[in-house]
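Internal tracking record. Fields below are filled automatically when a chain is submitted to the structure queue. Please do not edit lines marked as system-generated. If the sequence contains nonstandard residues, flag them in the REMARKS field before resubmitting.
Queue: standard
Priority: normal
Entity type: single polypeptide chain
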Amino acid sequence: MQSPVVGGRDIRLDILAKDSTGKHYNVEVQKKPELAKGVRHFKEEGGREKMCEAVQDYAEQKSSLVMLDIDNFKQVNDTYGHQEGDAVIIGLADILHNERSGHVSSGRWGGEEFMMLLHDTDVNAAAYIADLIRQCFANTKFPSVRTQTVSLGVTQAKADDTLDILCMRVDEALYKAKKDGKNRVTVV
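SYSTEM-GENERATED OUTPUT FOLLOWS
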């Protein structure tokens, strides 16, 4: 599968690099509680307004929104404790923040949900990127927790979308991904 071009450049997630045998690297996530405080939270401290501004700034361009939710996250906290749950959240945040360009705005949306706005990116490229993130997270090794998965909803912004409409549509896509079996990407 060819990498999509976003904003005139190839998208790749270094965390998904392959070794000389073609096997994907496994990412070891260390407990880094200090990172939990540094994760942007879109629902706090003006984050929603920043997301609105970002959507409006790129309204003339193709932009896509991805909503991610860690599958069965309550079981992680109930089985392994909140510290291990935090490590899982930090692991996903690390993957999302690996792509640090002006074309991606990402942050925590609530609980175990994250939002990612991909500027100058059509829905097909966004779905491809979402699936890379899904695969990477499924291959992430946590010190004490079994393998984790994430479900992702993807939608493309339309010229007349408000943030509320865009969020409702991406939430619908995420709900469908969860309903259809989790650990998948669904486009609406």
